[in-house]
Amino acid sequence: MSAAALTWEQFRFERKLFWRNPTAAFFNFVLPLLLLFLIATAFSSEGEELDTLIPGIAGMSVMATTFTALAYVLVYRREEGILKRVRGTPMPAASYLGGMIGSAVLNALLQILLVIGIGHFVYGVDWPADWLLVGAFSLLGVVCFGSLGIAFAHAIPNVDSGPAWVNAVFLPLIFISGVFYSADDLPGFLKAIAEALPLKHLIDGLSAGIVGGGEDTLAAAAVVGGWTAVGLLLAVRFFRWS
């Protein structure tokens, strides 16, 4: 089989593994939508809050389905010896990793479409003002947080500590990056931290595409792009099969 065919077969296998693991499916796919329903219902009469929440949940979904999911999966497969065994087979490394990453990418893109669709049909939020901008920032965010998730997996020592390490990054970041409320309302020092990290800028870019407004999309793309370069460099430099 060609490398492309092997990548497709691995992608199909990853889809089956994902949906046959109820815990992974819930925390990486259902939980962001559940938070959207709960919080959006509470603020359904306030258009400004919904205009903040929809891009925020979309950005959080990208991080959950790429950074969180890939960090968990890679640590588990590394510590269980799965990566080492795969490396000993004729399957090209690019096909194996491509199928695994492709599954995470599909989850992220589906999440964004679901969040936008729910916002429109359930809560009356307008369709995105600029679909092209939404697509560009979605892809940039997927590459950024996917590479950071792979890089971060190298720092996690074992499977048991994986949830603690990942949540120590994921939970604080979503609360300071404007997922549930505008990051402009944060105290100065927290806002400065959020400005230095990529999630806020991904949300700003998605907000500009979904809601429209005066966000500096070039600056946001530059910050997310910078973190993407860092993530790719660290992911490639420190990746190990065992």
What integer value in Å does the Rg equal? 18 Å
Q: Mean pLDDT across all residues, rounded?
A: 90
Q: How many DSSP helices?
A: 10
Proportion of residues in helical segments? over 70%
Taken from the alpha-carbon principal axes, the silhouette is: globular
Low-confidence parts, pLDDT < 50 over ≥5 residues?
none
Order of SSEs, N→C? HHHHHHHHHH
Broad structural category: mainly alpha
The total domain count is: 1
Report, as a whole number of angstroms, the end-to-end distance.
26 Å
Largest sheet: none
Q: How many distinct beta strands?
A: 0
Report on the architecture of this protein.
By secondary structure, this protein is mainly alpha-helical. The chain has helices spanning 3-19, 22-42, 47-79, 82-87, 93-121, 131-153, 162-176, 188-196, 198-210, 217-238. The protein has one domain. It contains 10 helices and no strands. The model has no long low-confidence stretch (mean pLDDT 90).
Keywords:
242 residues, mainly alpha, globular
Please render the helix and strand layout as text.
Layout: H1 3-19, H2 22-42, H3 47-79, H4 82-87, H5 93-121, H6 131-153, H7 162-176, H8 188-196, H9 198-210, H10 217-238
Helix pairs in contact: 1-5, 2-3, 2-5, 3-5, 3-6, 3-7, 3-9, 5-6, 6-9, 6-10, 9-10
Summarize this, please?
By secondary structure, this protein is mainly α.
